[in-house]
Design brief:
Blueprint lengths: L1 E4 L5 E5 L13 H4 L1 H5 L9 E3 L17 E3 L2 H19 L4 E4 L7 H4 L2 H9 L3 E3 L5 H11 L15 E5 L3 H4 L4 H9 L3 E5 L5 H5 L2 E3 L6 H14 L5 H7 E2 L1 H8 L4 H8 L3 H13 L3 E5 L9 H15 L8 E3 L10 H5 L15 E3 L3 H5 L4 H9 L12 E5 L3 H4 L3 H8 L5 E6 L11 E4 L8 E3 L6 E5 L12 H11 L11 H9 L17 H7 L1 E3 L26 E2 L3 H5 L25 E6 L13 H6 L6 E4 L1 H6 L7 E5 L4 E8 L7 E5 L33 E6 L1
Parallel strand pairs: 5-14, 6-13, 7-8, 7-11, 8-9, 10-20, 11-12, 14-15, 15-16, 21-25, 22-24
Antiparallel strand pairs: 1-2, 3-4, 3-16, 17-18, 18-19, 21-26, 22-25, 23-24, 23-26
Helix pairs in contact: 3-21, 6-15, 10-13, 10-14, 10-15, 13-14
């Protein structure tokens, strides 16, 4: 990304870097308007403290300042440090919980000085499961490492299957590769319950029912093995457990799979044959697949398909979920888990799952723990949470079971600090708000999950007001806490060198980064990983030969790791507790998709008027199939109630015949920007995925009625 800065130090233009082979000179629609975010008039520019006597709760947009008073950084850091010390002494340091995800996704901003701080403090660790954990663990169970087909090679494919991935909406830099492949005769198949931008442009959109992806993948395997379409030579050389898999998928006949997915048996067979017989065939799976109760199994089963057909052997074939496993940052140097030994605990602290924040913030009696066990939710051991430190995230909007989260955030005895750029759904409950930087205002180093380039992200402009980065803020707070270790005084440049593990000769010592120097990054901005330096003469094709980092050393159809845990080592389709086949469907018969907006990044950008205008057509709408609307006497444009045992939201009906019947959809928004100050997560649960203990946003049952 290139940033143009005028003589006054103001950024006046952002554009794609034409020398970057993947982003290739253009930006997605949301980031193309990024300066609207940087210079937004309602940006928080100074530390704020809640005024005495002002209750926590949703604040009127534009009047949030009335609930807070401006303080200096010294006063804010001193007050926060004093309260954290008091909390740790009274309840134990594990009663302090950090909550963060990927609001800043640079290596330093995502996880470095903050991890050092909480390790040294003895604060609880956070299991960051809300987005990608189920799918990521599933992929690693099959392949051992998150690698995939290079994005640039998708243009060579003759078939591209986008499974749970809205490429045109949310993976836009892959789209030119898809277009080039199609110009060369490739077909695009999209598997998604919702008719996304990508599905609307596909050669074949398969609108399966939510949460039935595992059944479809197993059904495809049934057809492939039954008709001898597998690559036996590749299977024998590179995989483990084909006999057991073949026995398992024998039960998944096209007829049986069709009854779950809503497809016709012939369509299951057609999909399997086309996928297995087209070369190269590229599979782009995204994380929508894994946000259901059996999501880990679904991602695992889909990941097996290129191994079954030998698609990895053909350049442009194979698959991609994430390329993040290629970046071997020195995490120990960055995060310093050894500091936990110097904490009052003398050990690593307990871990709290971010996908069950509502439960973590509510009092943990024995009854709650028993209920959590029954509902497949984590029962956190250790003390109750008495302090919450939020950065890089907006849990008041994005966390599941919104009403439970709000009940926790409202607690009088919960001390909450939020580091952010705007007054969000979470800052409305804060005791202190600290102003954060955008990525244009601090230096960082970047990996990726869609390509194989290390990138240096240089500071382009000075932070406005008194905005400060995560690295600066946690380093300063550590010093206020009395932590004397030198690592809390490291500069971003020093931490980048630590992440790269720069050796005496000036080169990185990280795997596949040994050719990288700071001078190279300064000069070029982005440098490919070692295996990707000569993509034309030496193309990177993962999983074609050699040993893999799995227990068997091979691609695992049969998981030795799961078997060792006493779990089913083979994929199996089990309908979700919240699905049309469950007992709960008698009361709540509609499956609810809590969708993301194409022009927001989860909740980021949702407060900007320009981005909201781009989402106006579907904002605050409930998309519903004509048959489901007719059965409830609902007409297009009428106000409706969407509800279940967890909550209720009011939306406007939008008839959509492209949805499968029995499925409704609404979009994530800030709760405070809705009439009732609640959003779609009032309906979602804290039930967890089968692998990875991730969030199950798309396993949600509701009923709909006229308002």
């Amino acid at each position: 990304m290139l940033v143009t800065v005028d003589g006054n130090g103001r950024a006046v233009k952002v554009q794609g870097d034409p020398s970057q082979p993947v982003t290739n000179g253009f930006l997605c629609g949301k980031v193309a308007k990024y300066l609207d975010r940087v210079y937004a008039p309602d940006r928080i520019l100074y530390p704020l403290k809640r005024k005495a006597g002002v209750a926590k709760g949703p604040l009127v947009r534009g009047r949030e300042h009335e609930a807070f008073e401006r303080v200096s950084w010294d006063e804010a850091l001193g007050g926060i440090a004093a309260r954290l010390k008091e909390t740790a002494e009274r309840y134990g340091p594990e009663s302090i919980l950090p909550y963060s995800y990927a609001g800043t996704i640079g290596v330093l901003g995502y996880g470095s000085m903050d991890r050092r701080f909480f390790h040294r403090l003895g604060g609880s660790q956070l299991a960051r499961t809300i987005c990608a954990e189920a799918g990521g663990q599933a992929w690693k169970l099959v392949y051992g490492k998150k690698l995939g087909t290079p994005t640039e090679d998708f243009k060579l494919a003759k078939l591209i299957v986008a499974w749970g991935g809205n490429i045109h909406g949310n993976n836009v830099h892959l789209w030119p590769m898809v277009e080039q492949a199609r110009r060369n005769g490739a077909r695009l198949i999209v598997i998604d319950p919702y008719r996304t931008r990508t599905a609307a442009l596909a050669d074949w959109h398969i609108a399966i029912r939510p949460g039935t992806d595992a059944a479809l993948a197993l059904g495809m395997m049934n057809v492939i093995l039954r008709e001898g379409l597998e690559d036996r030579a590749y299977i024998e050389a590179m995989t483990h457990g084909i006999e057991q898999l073949a026995a398992r998928v024998g039960d998944y006949t096209p007829e049986r799979v069709a009854s779950w997915t809503g497809m016709r048996p012939g369509e299951v067979e057609q999909l399997a044959r086309e996928y297995a017989t087209t070369r190269p065939a590229a599979l782009r799976m995204n994380y929508g697949v894994q946000r259901v109760e059996n999501g880990g199994t679904a991602a695992r089963a889909i990941a097996m398909l290129p191994a079954l057909t030998g698609a990895w052997k053909h350049r442009g074939g194979g698959g991609q979920l994430s390329t993040s496993g290629a970046f071997a940052w020195d995490a120990n140097a960055l995060e310093r888990p050894d500091l936990a030994l110097r904490s009052p605990l003398g050990r690593l602290a307990r871990t709290v799952n971010m996908s069950a924040l509502g439960q973590a913030l509510e009092k943990q009696g024995t009854g709650n723990r028993e209920q959590a066990k029954e509902d497949n939710e984590p029962a956190n051991s250790g003390p109750d949470v008495h302090a919450l430190f939020v950065y890089n995230s907006n849990p008041g909007a994005v966390a599941p079971n919104h009403n439970a989260v709000v009940r926790g955030l409202k607690r009088d005895d919960l001390f909450t600090v939020v580091h952010d750029l705007f007054f969000t759904d979470t800052t409305d409950y804060a005791d202190y708000i600290l102003p954060a930087t955008t990525f244009l205002e601090h230096t960082d180093i970047q990996g990726a999950y869609g390509h194989y380039f290390v990138q240096l992200s240089k500071q382009a402009i000075e932070p406005p007001g008194e905005s400060r980065s995560n690295v600066w803020m946690f380093g300063q707070l550590a010093q206020r806490m009395g932590f004397e270790e030198d690592c809390f005084r490291d500069t971003p440049e020093e931490m980048i060198r630590q992440a790269l593990a720069i050796g005496d000769d000036g080169h990185s010592t990280n795997a596949e980064m040994e050719h990288i120097t700071m001078e190279d990054l300064e000069a070029k901005g982005h440098v490919p990983l070692a295996f990707h330096r000569e993509p034309e003469s030496k193309p990177f094709q993962p999983f074609v030969s050699g040993s893999l980092p799995t227990p068997s050393g091979k691609i695992e159809f049969y998981s030795e790791a799961l078997a060792a845990q006493g779990l089913d080592p083979l994929p199996v389709f089990v309908p979700a507790v919240e699905s049309r086949w469950s007992e709960g469907a008698k009361r709540y018969p509609l499956e609810f998709l809590s969708r993301k907006n194409d022009n927001y990044m989860n909740s980021t950008f949702a407060n900007l008027d320009g981005h909201r205008k781009m989402e106006a057509r579907t904002s605050q709408k409930l998309e519903i199939h004509p048959l489901d609307a007719e059965a409830r006497g609902i007409n297009d444009g009428e106000a409706v109630r969407v509800f279940n045992d967890r909550g209720l939201i009011h939306l406007t009906a939008m008839i959509n015949g492209d949805l499968p019947s029995g499925v409704v959809a609404g979009r994530l928004d800030w709760a405070k920007l809705t009439p009732d100050a609640v959003n779609v997560n009032a309906l979602t649960s804290e039930r967890l995925t089968d692998i990875g203990a991730g969030a199950t946003f798309y396993s949600t049952l509701v009923e709909v009625a006229k308002a």
